[in-house]
Amino acid sequence: MAKMEVKTSLLDNMIGVGDMVLLEPLNEDSFINNLKKRFDHNEVYTYIGSVVISINPYRSLPIYTPEKVEEYRNRNFYELSPHIFALSDEAYRSLRDQDKDQCILITGESGAGKTEASKLVMSYVAAVCGKGAEVNQVKEQLLQSNPVLEAFGNAKTVRNDNSSRFGKYMDIEFDFKGDPLGGVISNYLLEKSRVVKQPRGERNFHIFYQILSGASEDFLCKLKLERDFSRYNYLGLDSAKVNGVDDAANFRTVRNAMQIVGFMDHETQSVFEVVAAVLKLGNIEFKPESRVNGLDESKIKDKNELKEICELTGIDQSVLERAFSFRTVEAKQEKVSTTLNVAQAYYARDALAKNLYSRLFSWLVTRINESIKAQTKVRKKVMGVLDIYGFEIFEDNSFEQFIINYCNEKLQQIFIELTLKEEQEEYIREGIEWTHIEYFNNAIICDLIENNQTGILAMLDEECLRPGTVTDDTFLEKLNQVCATHQHFESRMSKCSRFLNDTSLPHSCFRIQHYAGKVMYQVEGFVDKNNDLLYRDLSQAMWKASHSLIKALFPEGNPAKINLKRPPTAGSQFKASVATLMKNLQTKNPNYIRCIKPNDKKAAHIFNDALVCHQIRYLGLLENVRVRRAGYAFRQGYEPCLERYKMLCKQTWPHWRGPARAGVEVLFNELEIPEEEFSFGRSKIFIRNPRTLFKLEDLRKQRLEDLATLIEKIYRGWKCRTRFLLMKKSQIVIASWYRRYAQQKKYQKIKSSAVIVQSYIRGWKARKLLRELKHQKRCNEAATIIAAYWHGTQARRELKRLKEEARRKHAVAVIWAYWLGLKVRREYRKFFRANAGRKIYEFTLQRIMQKYFLEMKNKMPSLSPIDKNWPARPYLFLDSTHKELKRIFHLWRCKKYRDQFTDQQKLIYEEKLEASELFKDKKALYPASVGQPFQGAYLEISKNPKYKKLKDAVDEKIIIAEVVNKINRANGKATSRIFLLTKNNVLLADQKSGNIKSEVPLGDVTKVSMSSQNDGFFAVHLKEGSGAAGKGDFLLSSDHLIEMATKLYRTTLSQTKQKLNIEISDEFLVQFRQDKVCVKFIQGSQKNGNIPTCKRKNNRLLEVAVP
Ligand SMILES: Nc1ncnc2c1ncn2[C@@H]1O[C@H](COP(=O)(O)OP(=O)(O)O)[C@@H](O)[C@H]1O
Ligand SMILES: [Mg+2]
Predict the structure, then answer these.
(1) In Å, how far are 277, 819, 1008, 1107 from 1094, measured between CA atoms?
(2) Ligand 1 within 6 A of 168 CB?
(3) Is residue 302 scored above 50 in pLDDT?
């Protein structure tokens, strides 16, 4: 890759001259030749000072790349070869750095490249201004508004395949940093007649073709459209396809752009529905129908299309149908309805289509503005880009061309005003020496068109408003009357016309000599187009649509807001908006791009000299160069100039105290700028050559860098110094803190050492004291001990002495007593022998007795009668007393014991005593019975219901009731019987039944026999011959033998007053009926445990074996 050449001036490698100001010699031929030479070398841009001439190359050149953008960024205007980017950069920097609002005025014929140029300017500014997500979104929206507006507002014309059919002025707003904030678009007069009719070789607006080729089948179906262009009357068949244009792809681009700009899906949908409705309106056709009264009437041929439109837009079909057939005129509160003939119906239809489309377009602009408008309220800087339709000359020129060309006249005016006239006037005003340069001022043409009294537009309006029949011809007549004498107005019909014989000028036309050439206008349609009439019935029908967008487009259709005033005409509307635009542009710093079309064929590489020459002439470019060359490239007020460059001179830097002009003079002298290079005006300095300005700028830049360095140096110094001071201050603070800390530490150390030393000394002192105290204490102790010992010795000595004394005293007393005794005995010996012996004896005896009793009292045994203890006898002579005393005591305690018994207990003990007398030491069974209480009634006869019978039979008190075994006399076996003892009887009863078996009165019982052994057998012997004795004696055995025998004995005694005989023997005789049987008790084996067994041995013997 070749090393990129770095250009530092547009003079480097120049083809021809880059700036026409440098052209020598200056004439039309050299001018064109220079342009041609450059054009042939692909240099399409050339300067006239700061104005850019752009020649449409009709092919894409590689000069708009991002690298090119970088190359032109922040470079001086004349540094590089001429380029539209250099102008854009200059404008942007001036806006950003000098706070001047800018406008970029792009002029030229249709197809000269204005729209492209405006896009290049916008894209350059977008590329160089601030970055960031938010800013990028704003940029993207601003840029993407272009494809949308182009699709709806551009069309192919014979001059340009992408001709803007509307004027566009876009304000881009920036913040103080130069970041884009948003924008505002103004649109001017869309050429809406194109919707219904296009000249030969031209197309309708792009969007119609884009929908039909780009939309999906589905979408087309929704819009009730068919893909075939030929189905639609409004699409001229001539050039449905344009070479090199892909309508389908563009459709996608447009939809995408709409989305980016911020259209909601439903909005996009609505927009396309309106477009479809417009397209379909063209297919409604009418046929004539005559009525009886001779009035013409029209009828819709095929209602299908109408039906579909109504479905699409939500309008009642009958309403729309009626609007196409009738027209209601309101005059003085009266409504008159007239029918429309076929022509009127078509007119109504087309008017509706045009209005619908143009209002949709305005709505789009409003909607885009809503999206792209700046969100903040901060002060904004503005860069306006004007891309208005170029000057047009067609074969048939109508109202639209008239308007367009009027607009171009106005733009030329502003160019003249600002560059040619204003500049020259300024020189004069400023007192600069100046030779006037002639140029054509088109103000006269503007006046012809816009004059409020005699201007063509005023005429047209007057004609439109005039009562009576008004036609285009009456309008032309009027023009002929009023404008006939105007230099630039040509008409065949005008009085004393110069053109009576000019056959090139038809009768129905008028011609205007515009600054850019003569244009012949067909007068036909002027009145209608200016009126821009839409029957009220139609706008009301549209307002009734349920389609919200359509409803919103026709607000005047709302019957509640009926306004009988005529709306302003199209012409006056346009005039007003152009006037506002001009005012707006005048407040801004203008930057010019003058576009030139090299040929009429839209072809590359062709340079038509004649065509270019014509454009150069009417654009006044040559005059532009002349003024430029004669004049000064740059001017500036003294104060801003001094402010800007004062740093270049010592006297003026940093402050100049005198007047600004003097300061500038000093400055320029100091800089040694050649005198011919500048002039001093009254209030401004004029610099002739841009190079001088650039030199100044370069010096300033250099100086700024130096100053920056200086500032940087001072700042660095200041920063270092403040840092140093801060560090110093910090150091002091730190040092003081550290010192404090160190001193603290040191002090603490000394303090602690002092404490230690102190403590040692105190300790030493204390120990010393302690030692002294201990010594003293020991001395004291020693003294005490010594004293104690000494006292002890003293005491013992004293004690010894006292003892000795006491002993001596005792001995004296004893000796004295003995001696006294001896004396007494010697005296009383004669009395003692007679009485004393007896007295002593009595006394001694008395003493002994006393002592005996007192001792006995303490030694008394317990009160239990069975306690055998008794104290021993102390003196032999008291033996009998002692025994007697024991007996008395025993009796006494027995009585005590008895006294505590109740009568019943007494009875029991009596019985027990009886038993003891009867059986003690006689019967071996006795001892076991002592501990058993005598219960008597073992069986509870009265309580047990079993013995009720028995009880009833015995009415006496029962003493014994017990089960006994009755021994069978025959075999010695035992049977159970109930043994009852009453007061008078002994009874035996059956144990089970309770039947009394035997009853023996007590008087009949003679004897009771039993063994001496440990058994319970006993025999009850009966009185011989008594009633009961028939069966013989009873041999019984019982567990309570002792009790039974005792009770039987006692009862018998108390009843019969006779003692019952109780025989205790191991062999006794028992009377069994007639026989006497011996019952013998023997010692038996322990075979049956403890139970004695009884056996009959023979007739006479019954043996009982007792274990
Ligand atoms: N700088 C350019 N480079 C390449 N082609 C250009 C350039 N300017 C214009 N053209 C071509 O010329 C055509 C017409 O340009 P345009 O800007 O639409 O003209 P107008 O002046 O009518 O707005 C464009 O469609 C494009 O093909
Ligand atoms: Mg254009």
Answers:
(1) 152, 99, 18, 12
(2) no
(3) yes
**How far is C-alpha 368 from the geometric centre of its chain's CA atoms?**
36
User: Which candidate, 1043, 1053, 903, places its Cα nearest to that of 961?
Assistant: 1043
- Nearest ligand to the CA of 157 is 1
What is the token pair recorded at 288?
Answer: 């004539």
- 294 has pLDDT over 70: no
Whose tokens are 């009395």? That residue is 831
Yes or no: say if 481 and 495 are a contact pair by the CB < 8 Å rule: yes
- pLDDT score for 239: 65
Indicate if the pLDDT at residue 3 is higher than 50.
no
Structure tokens at 761: 């000394």
pLDDT at position 4: 41
- List of long-range contacts for 562-568, beta carbons under 8 Å, 24+ apart: 564/330, 566/465, 567/532
User: Has residue 421 got a pLDDT over 80?
Assistant: no
This prediction has a pTM of 0.62
Q: Which pLDDT score is estimated for 1002?
A: 85
Mean pLDDT computed over 935-940? 80
Alpha carbon distances (Å) from 474 to 458, 462, 464, 467: 14, 11, 10, 12
Check: CB of residue 692 under 8 Å from CB of residue 673: yes
β-partners of residue 133 are none
Q: What is the pLDDT of residue 949?
A: 79
> Which of 59, 160, 405, 596 for a ligand 1 pocket mutation test, highest count of atoms within 8 Å of Cβ?
160
> What's phi and psi for 312, nearest 5 deg?
-65, -35
What number is the average pLDDT over the span 254-260? 96
Alpha carbon distance 15, 1040 (integer Å): 173
What ligand has the least distance to the C-alpha of 153? 2
| Mutation to probe ligand 1, out of 46, 56, 60 (largest number of atoms < 8 A from CB) | 56
Give the per-residue pLDDT at 336: 81
Q: For ligand 2, a single-atom ion, which residues have Cβ within 5 Å?
A: 114-115, 164
What does the mean pLDDT of the chain come to?
87
Spot the catalytic one: 16, 153, 236, 390: 390
Query: Coil, helix or strand for 155?
Result: strand
- Measured CA to CA, the distance from residue 1018 to residue 1028 in angstroms comes to 18
Q: What is the pLDDT of residues 874-930, one digit of tens each?
A: 888 888 888 998 999 999 988 888 888 888 888 888 888 888 888 888 888 888 888
**In sequence order, which residues have a C-beta less than 8 Å from that of residue 492 and are 6 or more positions away?**
499, 500, 502, 505, 506, 507
Query: Ligand nearest 596 Cα, by number?
Result: 1
Q: What does the alpha-carbon distance between residue 104 and residue 91 come to, in Å, rounded to a whole number?
A: 8
CB 48 within 8 A of CB 57: no
Token pair 């205790």: residue: 1064
CA distances 1042 to 760, 776, 1015, Å, are 110, 103, 10
Percent of the chain with pLDDT over 90: 37
| Single-letter residue type at 552 | A
Query: For the residues 118-138, what does the mean pLDDT come to?
Result: 90
Q: Which atom of ligand 1 is nearest to the CA of 112?
A: 21
E-state strands within 515-644:
517-522, 589-596, 634-637
CA distance 242 to 229: 13
In the residue annotation, 109 being an active-site residue is answered as no
**Does the active-site annotation cover 390?**
yes
CB 976 within 8 A of CB 965: yes
